[in-house]
What does this fold into?
Amino acid sequence: MNEPRIAFLLAMAHRAMTDRLHQWLAEEGREALRPAHGYTFRFLAEGGVVTSVELGQRLGVSKQAATKIAAELEEWGYVVRRPHPTDGRARALGLTQRGLDYISHVDGLWDEAEAEWAALIGPERLEETREAIAAYVEHASAKGAPLLRPVW
Amino acid sequence: MNEPRIAFLLAMAHRAMTDRLHQWLAEEGREALRPAHGYTFRFLAEGGVVTSVELGQRLGVSKQAATKIAAELEEWGYVVRRPHPTDGRARALGLTQRGLDYISHVDGLWDEAEAEWAALIGPERLEETREAIAAYVEHASAKGAPLLRPVW
DNA sequence: ATCGTAAAGTAAACCAGGTTGTCCATCTAG
DNA sequence: CTAGATGGACAACCTGGTTTACTTTACGAT
It folds into this structure.
């Protein structure tokens, strides 16, 4: 295969990194959360009052699907649902301590995965790569992509 | 958000590029094929006699799923199934002229998408980015990832 | 004050794209 | 020439989502 398409390489590299992450998590005997769970953590960690509807918008799925994801995370002890402070219809989603611990642990694993890559090409080139990709993503999302969510 | 995770950027960029492709295809009024169909085309275009089982291995799905994909493509006129030249149990998959036309058309669209990116950061930096990603993908697949298929 | 519409949540039916399990026909090694 | 392996087809099922429909609460305009 000559000059693989960069879109293909993006997908393969993403796959390889997340496989690495899941491998480490499996070795530690942790539940395998799906990417959608990870993005939920990031969103909730930003702070503020978050409802299922808002989570769905962020994830790019229906509110029903978002509710289901939040319910799973609640069952596993990562998320709590409290009454919403100002809106009697809504429930406010938040991370438990267990959720916060998980997110910081996974952050460390991402660091490791990036370090493996940096070991191959050097940290400077990796940083340039990050910026090159970020430039395209910003361009594409500015251009009014209706919703720019990752593929999963 | 500080320094987004590169894994996240990879997913977003891949999503943005494929969205762009689908947008163009939709504007041309073509059927929206899924990524799995595209990878099937690439595989069949390599030439040689290909069976459903082999297609499944390449795509990283069961032979039943591969058969279903091939059946769709046959129904739409992109693929033919002929008797296998040497094995009476098997059917040989191949591209029709319509399939070949489709693949070369899509290749042109990928060129356009890459050109948009190159316009942002320059063709040299894009080439460096491609190489940086390719290096990681090769490393990861050499390291014995059981099967390195893209995420879809 | 209250009425009408919008919005959050929940539930149920459905759908797409995969899986596993089973079976038959054919191939191939011994 | 027989026994096990393999390609393919069919069916049942699973998962993660969607759509549709309904209840309850919020809230702006009259």
Q: What stands out?
A: Chain B touches chain A through 47 residues (CB under 8 Å). The beta strands of chain B are 79-83, 91-95.
